[in-house]
Amino acid sequence: MSSSTLDVHSHDPHGHGDDPHHQHHFATMEQQFDTSKIGMWLFLATEVLLFGGLFVGFGLMQARYPQEFVEAHEHLQRPLGALNTIVLLFSSWTMVMGVVNAKKGDRKKLVLFLALTILCACIFLTVKYFEYSHKFEEGLLPGHWYTAQATDTVRNAQGVLSHGYATFFSFYFMMTGLHGFHILVGIFLLSWIAVRGNRGEFSSAYYTPVDLVGLYWHLVDLIWIYLFPLFYLIK
Amino acid sequence: MSTSTEHTQDQAHGNDHEGTYLRTLVALLCLTIVTVAASYVDFGSGNIVIALTIASIKASLVALFFMHLRYEKPVNGIIAMAGFLFLGIFLMFCFIDFDTRDALRPVNWNGKMPMDIAAPVQSAAPAPAAVPPAPAPAPAQK
Questions:
Q1: What residues of B are in contact with residue A157 (Cβ under 8 Å)?
Q2: Is the CB of residue A58 less than 8 Å from the CB of residue A226?
């Protein structure tokens, strides 16, 4: 690939023709790669702040309704949460192996590892689907839709239920829902990268899209690493 | 600058990291087992501390190795840390506000607020006690 690339660009009008992916406003391929990475990291920082607002809200409400949050979290299926954590961590490893093989220019292994990552993402969403349907059936829903109150103990003098339970599930559905949406976007991005990888578009000279999608995927994993203990393991 | 030589070395010996990535995965899975196991033991308020400490170790492993921050030029790490720094400031001031609100109430405060922490739903509950709230919505579309 690289030798044919050289041939194509031996008469490059911009005077630095070593790679068709090299855009002329960058001095070197390395500078171009680093610039893309900085852009991606800036985006990831905004993602941290996007989820951060929800984490802060969750923390405040946990401080306001400690007892309700502990009781509510008993309704979550801890083994399923743990399974999803393991699936996502494994998918992070397959993703990073995808990047390694993109860098090596190993097309078959790149596509294999990306396919494994997509498979893990689908397993994650399937488990999430079963968790959500279980909660819909039990009435463990946000706001005034919350109807599963048989075992809830925090009530006022008139026996009216505390808002804390419904608040817990408002945060649960908002945060896992937003995270699930990120997984869904990740599946589309991974598929796009897999199709391009299958065409042999990536090599040691150019694998930026694989690397950046990898960063996105690891951030989604990183957010789940915090979501899992906060929702499933709090005491 | 030494970072650029490291960068090219990193590209030349790309396979060297494969072992590191596998060890990172094993460490992450072990920490997951530890945190789940710890959640079944009652450490009182220590549970949340243990869970969040382990989560932070796991997040650091992912950021340092899977997201290559350990091998990167420092600027990416600085951007990442800036995100967490501002999240920390946000978190800190929200909790200072939350924790000091009672102390800042006026001296003639009558002891009632719309949603009091001591009696969470007192003022927001005109409905009689025994009647459950809204009927269950349609279950999940299947």
A1: 119, 122
A2: no
Max Cα separation, chain A?
Answer: 85
Q: Could you give the domains of chain A? A: 28-232 (1.20.120.80)
Which of B71, B87, B117 best probes binding to A when mutated, by most A CB atoms within 10 angstroms? B87
* Maximal CA-CA distance, chain B: 73
* A227 sits in which H/E element: helix A208-232
- Residue bearing tokens 């490893």: A93
**Closest alpha carbon to A98 in A215, A185, A13, A229:** A215
**C-beta atoms of B130 and A159 within 8 A:** yes
Domain ranges of chain B: 10-71, 73-106
Cβ atoms of A233 and A79 within 8 Å: the answer is no
Whether residue A108 is predicted with pLDDT greater than 90 in this model: the reply is yes
End-to-end CA distance of chain A: 57
Predicted complex: ipTM over 0.90: no
Beta carbons of B82 and A49 less than 8 Å apart = no
> What's the token pair of residue B79?
């951007």
Which tokens is B81 given? 């840390």
The pLDDT score that the predictor gives to residue B10 is 47
Q: Which of A56, A86, A162 sits opposite B32 (nearest CB)?
A: A86
- CA dist., res. A223 & res. B108, Å (int): 45
DSSP state letter for A157: T
| Amino acid symbol at B54 | I
Q: Which residues in chain B touch residue A37, judged by CB atoms under 8 angstroms apart?
A: 72, 76
- Give yes or no for a contact between A183 and B141, defined as CB atoms under 8 angstroms apart: no
Spatial CB neighbours of A31, under 8 Å, sequence gap ≥ 6:
none
What is the model's pLDDT at position A120?
97
Q: Do A158 and B95 touch (CB under 8 A)?
A: no
Name the pLDDT band for A8 (thresholds 50, 70, 90): very low
- CA distances to A88, B55, B75 from A83, in Å: 9, 16, 35
Q: For residues A178 and A186, is the Cβ–Cβ distance under 8 A?
A: no
**Rounded CA gap, B49 and A18, in Å?**
53
In sequence order, what DSSP letters do the residues of B6-59 get, joined into one string?
A: HHHHHHHTTTHHHHHHHHHHHHHHHHHHHHHHHHTS--TTHHHHHHHHHHHHHH
